[in-house]
Amino acid sequence: MALWFMVGIICGLCFVCLSAELQRLEQPGKGDGSLSFLVVGDWGRRGSFNQSRVAFQMGKIGEKLDIDFVVSTGDNFYDNGLSSEHDTAFEESFTDVYTANSLQKQWYSGKNMTANSLSYAVLGNHDYRGDAEAQLSPLLRKIDSRWLCLRSFIVNAELAEIIFVDTTPFVNTYFLDPEDHTYDWRGVTPRKPYIANLLKDVESALRESTATWKIVVGHHAIRSVGHHGDTEELVSHLLPILKANNVDFYMNGHDHCLEHISDTDSRIQFLTSGAGSKAWRGDVKQLNREGLSFFYDGQGFMSVQLTQSDAEIVFYDVYGNILHRLNASKQFLHSSM
């Protein structure tokens, strides 16, 4: 989920009920109407595997861009999520690592709270291997008020609408061949109606959205040339909904890399930011590389800046170097190194 984190919001955070089941968070934009945030995934390792170095650079870029919040694409705590609400891994991998001033904004505070900025997170497959509901617990927000993690929800940031989707239950392997892993499926089973209702809610939210930018966030990739490759269940069930509703960006983690792939028959840009700590050097699939603009097999993160007419997305390495830049508008898209 999202840094976490969840997603963070600035002042005046509140929940609004939809006709569907997804919770909606309202986030006012900046005074000039712009929006900026960071995206990181697959990070929670008590600072090891360069997690602390990535966090340090996030703090520097976050200050430079005056970010409004942080998004976590899941796998928030390794190797098996949190064992309970009292697991010390929460503070050791989150509170004690993301210490920069620019990351001390409210990452999430709960209902009717006033905050400077928030963070949003979704659950990844490793999070489901522990006590998944512990990460959703309000108790964690009492320990660190920046934290917000939900299964699926919507952030309405005026300029952009960001829909967070719980993708782990879509993946057949976790149910049919879990190997020696135990998954916490409370709140998910029975699986078939859970997925059907979620897809219905996502389609409804996207169809009704009037936002300039439509963004969907999930843990698993729809398109990737990394270790796990494309997630066929999402290609079959989620991607057609995104295409039909003119989604601009799909952001994910899961593969421990940074990458940018352009869809060949729609406006969607697939953006992987799953390099918050341990990375997989040289683990690249040779199949289905169509639309690939950028791939990096080291640690890093991503920034997003949005205005009414333009978007700029930048990928950074563990030293803060710019690796790749995507500039998008409603008229055209182009990217550069």
Write the layout of secondary structure elements.
Elements: E1 6-7, E2 15-17, E3 23-26, E4 35-40, H1 51-65, E5 69-72, H2 89-95, E6 118-121, H3 125-128, H4 132-135, H5 138-143, E7 153-156, E8 160-165, H6 173-176, H7 191-208, E9 213-218, H8 232-237, H9 239-244, E10 249-252, E11 258-262, E12 269-273, E13 292-296, E14 300-306, E15 310-317, E16 322-329, E17 333-336
Parallel strand pairs: 3-7, 4-5, 5-6, 8-9, 9-10, 10-12
Antiparallel strand pairs: 1-6, 2-3, 4-14, 7-8, 11-12, 11-13, 14-15, 15-16, 16-17
Organism: Theobroma cacao (Cacao)
Enzyme class: hydrolase
InterPro entries: Acid_PPase, Calcineurin-like_PHP, Metallo-depent_PP-like, Metallophosphoesterase_PAP
Kindly list the characteristics that best describe this protein.
337 residues; alpha/beta; Purple Acid Phosphatase, chain A, domain 2
In short:
With 337 residues, the chain is α/β, with parallel strands linked by helices.
